Structures are given as structure tokens and as C-alpha cells.
UniProtKB/TrEMBL annotation, chain A:
Endpoints of the signal sequence: none
Protein name: SUF system NifU family Fe-S cluster assembly protein
GO biological process, one term: iron-sulfur cluster assembly
PANTHER family named in the record: IRON-SULFUR CLUSTER ASSEMBLY ENZYME NIFU HOMOLOG (PTHR10093)
Name of a matching Pfam family: NifU_N
Protein's organism: Lacticaseibacillus chiayiensis
InterPro entries: NIF_FeS_clus_asmbl_NifU_N
Family, as annotated: Belongs to the NifU family.
Domain of life: Bacteria
Segments forming domain NIF system FeS cluster assembly NifU N-terminal: 9-128
Molecular function terms from GO: iron ion binding; iron-sulfur cluster binding
UniProtKB/TrEMBL annotation, chain B:
Keyword annotations: Pyridoxal phosphate, Transferase
Domain of life, per lineage: Bacteria
Cofactor: pyridoxal 5'-phosphate
One of the Pfam families matching this protein, by short name: Aminotran_5
Organism: Lacticaseibacillus chiayiensis
Reactions it catalyzes: (sulfur carrier)-H + L-cysteine = (sulfur carrier)-SH + L-alanine
Transferase in keyword set: yes
Protein name: cysteine desulfurase
GO BP term, pick one: cysteine metabolic process
PANTHER family, alphabetized: CYSTEINE DESULFURASE, CYSTEINE DESULFURASE 1, CHLOROPLASTIC
Taxonomic lineage: Bacteria, Bacillati, Bacillota, Bacilli, Lactobacillales
NCBIfam families: sufS
Length: 148, 398
């Protein structure tokens, strides 16, 4: 079976990340909150972010989705810690490019999250990967406005 | 059978198990579309030249053909629409306010497709009516006694699928209609998942309205039909205005054409109608009860094989016709779908436009395999092997 393409997307680290997500749950105190959906597939993601001195100092997500969306949310929440909203906005742009193109020069700023680049070979799954990132950018720029 | 579908020559290794979403098309349909555009293209109901007259005849003969196919009393009861969604929205917008008074009551099953759910939900809002969504069983099939019990005195309208699109169960429409009519309620039936898998007789069912799509019965996309009982259509006003649908237009007022063209404003999808006629003709010539039984048996073989896989939930039951929904515990349906796609197996994963059902089952989505007349044993075997492989892959077994 030719599963190389699959293996590139479902790296062991991604399967593990989805099964044991970091920052999964809810925060008692937070400054930003958003619920986003992928209406074509029913994925729901609830994201809370707490800020201190202009940087993200805590974050949590909950909801449900596929391996890609859960792993991506877990990696995203880990990578945005200690970052400013402006930095996060840039990261989200870079991540989006990476997932669509498969390679970008500034992938380094994404840290471990760059492991998701294999998704670019599966156009139908791009939205799964970008859901959490777009939620972060949206909530940090729109100050807690939700789509509910 | 399969050799009549050029799609499978273009995709010789593809296992296509998504006919509930849309069917593949027989050569007979493609020939009819090509013939229409090469030889017969003219606008209907207008031109006085022979070609236009002949095309109008052909177009109207499909109306009779659809009436016969559904066992309607007459062609006057058949309205051409863009498909099931369009048909159901037409009933909800045009007939809904007549059927459901302010403060009335609408009943739908908890397993309806969004297209037979939202139009009624929105009608209920407009009419400040009670909108009742009835329970489902844990396997996703409709709880029929609960549905019947919900049809109380004061119920004005009941909307149900004849065959549901996730669990694939067939509702006892005639029984539901009897209860509804006893209570003075109208019944609208979504036949999208039924027409390609069973014989339909709207008079025997007693349905007041019945909707279906051409593309789910081996016909073109963008065309479908609405059956409406003649005495009810007489009370139903048009909701789209324009060419074709009038009797007379004056500066300050207009009158409407009689019959179904009242609801077919503008140049209709003529090629679609001709194509749907060709598809229905092909279907009636080529697909008999025995062929449909084979299709059902394939679905049951799949259900049986899937039930033998550990950590796997199958929705529906062995009465479910051609649709098999399932989930592997701990593996999201989208991941399963991607895995299967890599092995050239096309199935559907998602909420299947049935979010109220997903909410009742407490799941975000299912994997759904659905059969058409071209599927075979090999398709079942390949899918079952691939599902087993997906389970091993995502659970990190072996």
C-alpha cells in the first residue's frame, strides 16, 4: 500500500499530539474567547486566551474535530505562548502559507507546528489544519467577539 | 451494468460508494443530453416553429413520465424544480403559510436532512408555530412510535424523509400519513434517498407533497421534481414571477397560468428535464426489483462485515436499504475518509447535512458508504479491508 503521502501527514508526532493534546480544557480566567466552526464538516473549536503585559500567558482549547484539527490546535496553543498578538498574526499567516504550499522560508517561526506541512498534499484537509490558527488570529484582533 | 457508466472507464480503480450524495451517470443520459443540444435545442412554450414545438412536447412528456414514475394522478401534479431542496423550499414558502396558521404546530423527525428541516424551522418562526423534532433510536433510525405520538390534534404539517440519509431507514410513510390526515395535518415527503432504491407510489403513500432530485437517480444535477396533490396546488400561489408563468400581465396586476408552469418562471432547465426523462427511462428499463435487492444485499454484507470489526459502531439496521453509516471508536470520520481516499475509495464523512441527528447521537460526524446499481462484491471487500487497515493505522496496531 502506498501510504507515504499519508505517513507524511499523519506523522507519529501528529497522531500523538491529537491523542494527548496540550492546553486542552478551559481557563478560569481569560481575556479572549471564541468558538469557531468548520460548517462543512461540523468541527467545533472553543478557544480561550489570557494575556499579560501584551503577551499570551495562558491558553486552552476544547471542542471536537479530526486528528489534524486537534493536533493543529494543540501545536498552535503551545506555539503562541509568550507571543504578542502581532507576532501571532504573522505566525498564522506563515502557517496558512505553509499548509497551502508545503514549504515557506520562515517556517522556523512556527516551531514544532511546522510538522503539519504534510497537510498540503491533502487540499480537502487544509481547513482542518488552519481552523485553530484562524481562530487565534480572529480573537486576538477582534477582542473576544464570537461567531455564536 | 457497470459498463453502461463511462465514469468507471475513466476511473477503473475507484471504489465509488457515495451514491447517496450523487449517482454516476449512464451512457444513455449522456447521449440524450448531447442529442438535445445538437439536434433539439430550442426554448419551450414559446416558439411557433416546429423545432420549438417538438422540444416543448418532449419537455412536457417528461412531466407525464415523472407522474407515471411516482404514480401520480396526472402530469398537472408535477412541478420541475432544481432538486429536492428547491422542491421543499417551494412547498414551505408557497404552501406553508396556508397549511400552518399563526401559532400552529409542525412536526419533523430528528433524522431529517437540513433541506427537510430548516425550511420548516423557519416557517415555524414566521408563523410563531411550535416546531417539534421527534426522537431517534441510538442507531440513528427514526423512533416511529414517538413520531406518530407527536402527531397530535392541532398538528398542521408533518415533514419526513421516506428514506433517511444517514441511517438509511425507511419510514412507514403511509401509516404516518394516515395519522397525520386523521389529525388534519398535511404531509411533505423528502424522497431524495428513496426513488433510486424502491418503487414509489405517492397515491398509495397518501403524501400531499413528494420531492426528489434527478441526480440521485442517475440523472443530471440541477433538476428535480415536486409532486403536489392537484387540489392543494390549486391553493398554492406562485412565489417566483417572470416569463412563462403568467396568464395575463397588465400595468397594475397579473394573473397566473394554470397548472405546474405557474411555479416554473423563466426559461427552465430544459436539458435537465430531458436528461432526467432519459435517466428515468434508463432506470425503468435496466433496474428491476431483483437488481435493487442485490444492492440492498451488498449493503447488508457490508454491515455484517463491519460489525465484526472491533471498536466499530454501525448505524441503521438490516432493513436500511443502500446506505451504511459507521464510526470507528477514537478515530474521526475525516481521518478515515482521507485514509480510504488514499486507497481510491470514495465515501462520505461528515454530518451529512443532518446536524440535529448528530446532536441526538452525541457524535460530530459519521463515515457513510452508500450503494448504487453499479456497485459489486469487490467494492464491499475493498472497503472492509481498508477500514480494518485504517483502524490499525490510527490505533498504531502492528
Amino acid at each position: 500500500m502506498a501510504l507515504t503521502k499519508l505517513d507524511q501527514m499523519y506523522r507519529a508526532v501528529i497522531l500523538d499530539e491529537a491523542q494527548h493534546p496540550r492546553h486542552h480544557g478551559v481557563l478560569a480566567d481569560f481575556d479572549h474567547e471564541i468558538t469557531v466552526r468548520n460548517p462543512s464538516c461540523g468541527d467545533v473549536l472553543h478557544l480561550q486566551i489570557s494575556e499579560k503585559d501584551g503577551r499570551v500567558n495562558d491558553v486552552a482549547f476544547s471542542g471536537n474535530g479530526c486528528t489534524i484539527s486537534q493536533a493543529s490546535a494543540s501545536l498552535m496553543t503551545d506555539q503562541i505562548l509568550d507571543k504578542t498578538p502581532a507576532e501571532i498574526e504573522q505566525m498564522v499567516e506563515t502557517f496558512s502559507d505553509l499548509i497551502i504550499k508545503g514549504d515557506v522560508p520562515d517556517a522556523d517561526r512556527l516551531g514544532d507546528a511546522a510538522v503539519l506541512k504534510g497537510v498540503h498534499q491533502f487540499p480537502a484537509r487544509i481547513k482542518c489544519a488552519t481552523l485553530a490558527w484562524k481562530a487565534a488570529a480572529q480573537v486576538l484582533t477582534e477582542k473576544g467577539k464570537t461567531d455564536d | 451494468m457497470r459498463e453502461q457508466f463511462p465514469f468507471f472507464k475513466a476511473h477503473p480503480n475507484l471504489v465509488y460508494l457515495d451514491t447517496a450524495a450523487t449517482s454516476q451517470k449512464p451512457q444513455a443520459l449522456l447521449d440524450s443530453l448531447q442529442n438535445y443540444y445538437i439536434n433539439d435545442n430550442a426554448n419551450v412554450h414559446r416558439g411557433l416553429y416546429k423545432l420549438a414545438y417538438d422540444t416543448t412536447e418532449a419537455y412536457e412528456s417528461v412531466r407525464q413520465q415523472v407522474a407515471d414514475f411516482l404514480h401520480a394522478q396526472s402530469a398537472e401534479e408535477i412541478i420541475f424544480t432544481h432538486g429536492t431542496t428547491d422542491s421543499l423550499n417551494l412547498v414551505a414558502s408557497a404552501f406553508g403559510p396556508h397549511a400552518v396558521p399563526t401559532g400552529g404546530r409542525i412536526v419533523v423527525s430528528g433524522a431529517e436532512h437540513h433541506s427537510n428541516f430548516i425550511p420548516w424551522q423557519q416557517l415555524a418562526k414566521r408563523q410563531q408555530a411550535t416546531f417539534v423534532v421527534t426522537p431517534v433510536h441510538s442507531d440513528g433510525t427514526v423512533d416511529v412510535p414517538a413520531l406518530l405520538a407527536a402527531i397530535t390534534p392541532g398538528t398542521n404539517l408533518v415533514a419526513i424523509a421516506q428514506v433517511t440519509n444517514v441511517a438509511g431507514d425507511t419510514l412507514p410513510v403511509a401509516k404516518i400519513v394516515k395519522k397525520a390526515h386523521d389529525m388534519g395535518a398535511f404531509v411533505v415527503v423528502d424522497g431524495a434517498q428513496a426513488v433510486a432504491h424502491m418503487s414509489v407510489d405517492v397515491q398509495a403513500l397518501g403524501a400531499d407533497f413528494y420531492a426528489f432530485s434527478g441526480h440521485k437517480i442517475y440523472g443530471p444535477t440541477g433538476i428535480g421534481a415536486l409532486y403536489g396533490r392537484a387540489d392543494l396546488l390549486a391553493k398554492m400561489p406562485p412565489i417566483q414571477f417572470g416569463g412563462e408563468m403568467i396568464s395575463e400581465v397588465r400595468d397594475q396586476g397579473s394573473t397566473w397560468a394554470d397548472g405546474p408552469i405557474k411555479y416554473e418562471a423563466g426559461t427552465p432547465h430544459i436539458a435537465g428535464v430531458i436528461g432526467m426523462g432519459a435517466a428515468l427511462h434508463w432506470f425503468q428499463e435496466n433496474v428491476d426489483a431483483a437488481a435493487l435487492q442485490v444492492e440492498h444485499e451488498l449493503a447488508n454484507q457490508l454491515r455484517t462485515a463491519l460489525r465484526a470489526i472491533p471498536d466499530l459502531t454501525v448505524y441503521g439496521n438490516d432493513d436500511s436499504l443502500a446506505t451504511v453509516s459507521f464510526n470507528l471508536t477514537g478515530i474521526h470520520p475525516h481521518d478515515v475518509a482521507t485514509f480510504l481516499d488514499e486507497q481510491q475509495i470514495a465515501i462520505r464523512a461528515g454530518h451529512h447535512c443532518a446536524q440535529p441527528l448528530m446532536a441526538r447521537l452525541g457524535i460530530p460526524a459519521t463515515v457513510r458508504a452508500s450503494f448504487g446499481i453499479y456497485n459489486n462484491q469487490d467494492d464491499v471487500t475493498k472497503l472492509v479491508e481498508a477500514v480494518q487497515a485504517a483502524r490499525r493505522y490510527f490505533h498504531g496496531i502492528d
